[in-house]
Amino acid sequence: MTVFKTILKILNKKKGMLILYTAILISITVLNQTSGSNAVDFEDSKPDVLIVNKDGDNAITKGFTDYISKHSEIKDIDINNEEKVDDALFYRDVNFIIYIPKNFGKDLMEGKMPTLEYKSTKDQYSSYTKMLVEKYIKMINVYKEYYTGEELISKVNKVVNDEVKVELKTSLDTSKLSSMTRYFNFLNYALLAGCVYCISMILASVKENNVRKRTIISSYNYKKFNRIVLLTNGILILVMWIFYMVLSGILFKDLLISTNGLAYILNALMFSICSLTIGFFIGNITQNKNAIGGIVNVVALGSSFLCGCFVPVEYMPDYVIKIAHVLPTYYFVANNELIKGMERFNFTAIKPLLINGAVVLGFSILFTVATNIVSRKKQTIA
């Protein structure tokens, strides 16, 4: 009980850093939820188009202009003043200008392939408008072999104006799941930094020369002493994990009690155990309290940046991702990303989760073995 109380006193002095890591986690999560888009519906955005028609009311040309008008916002600008036209394009009052030459409709019917001239802002809206133009002309060239006049226009308009209805076949709230995934990805930093810092500081305190010598000469069994230190740190990590799960429940409410939420919780628990072993390993390597802060930054921040916690993996170079494979954080984040898109949790679906979880468990075993080796060597030296 004496050892347990002593460790709690040490931890109480270091609680400021735990509060700091938690504050960073909450701040980043709230910032992402505030800046992230909550929209789940697609809304068509029409480009601004100016049509300079020199072909009059030709049936083909009229059908073409009506089609463009339906899918864009037609701007009313003095087409005889080229300077005003260029200014409208420069100031983004229009995205695309179409110059329809004289005899365009007639030449198109005769197979002469008339050329349309364009001016554009070269953005996504202008690209979309050009796609509309090319689609209409292509349909005219296909159907003119079989129809003429009003019948041709009717057939072409029927084809180009057909709308495809897209129905989203998913029960997942993708927007909230994305926010939740980011929270659990950022949790890597809070867990790893908190574990490494607190455990290393505790071990540095209880393994100071004076403390270690007093423990050795006392009647206190050193094995019991080590078990209590290990148990106390285990309780610390468990409390941290529970706290962060409660926090996630406050932030995401009902989503946490879903199957996806349970998968996030178990994945975080597995990584918490791994963080515990990493903290023990580093705490046994050095008892220099001044160096521990730097080690925390290298381990927690470094792994967070390399493994996709702060920067999504899809934006990172291939060589960085290859390096990230040697860190347990990579597999923790990979599981979070997999859970985000999962609707069914049968064996086939969860197999990648189990593989990544096994890798994280393997890292835990590896760090435990490494800790025992380091501890044995230090005892031999002592």
Protein model, in words:
By secondary structure, the protein is mostly helical. The chain has two domains: 2-38 and 173-381, no CATH class; 48-160, abc type-2 transporter like domain (abc type-2 transporter like fold), CATH 3.40.1710.10. It contains 15 helices and four strands. Strands 2-1-3-4 form a four-stranded mixed sheet, with helices on one face. The longest helix has 35 residues, at 347-381. It is elongated and about 105 Å long.
Supply the key terms.
about 375 residues, mainly alpha, abc type-2 transporter like fold, 4 strands, about 70% helix
Spatially, the strands of the biggest sheet line up as 2-1-3-4
Rg over alpha carbons:
33 Å
**Kindly state the mean pLDDT as a whole number?**
81
Measured as a percent range, the helix fraction is 55-70%
Percent range for β-strand residues: under 5%
Structural class: mainly alpha
Counting DSSP H or I runs of 4 or more residues, the number of helices is 15
- Please tell me what the overall shape is: elongated
Order of helices and strands: HHEHEHEHEHHHHHHHHHH
Give the uncertain stretches in residue-range form. 36-43
Distance between the termini: 27 Å
How many strand units?
Answer: 4
Q: What's the domain count?
A: 2
The main pleated sheet reads as: 4 strands, mixed
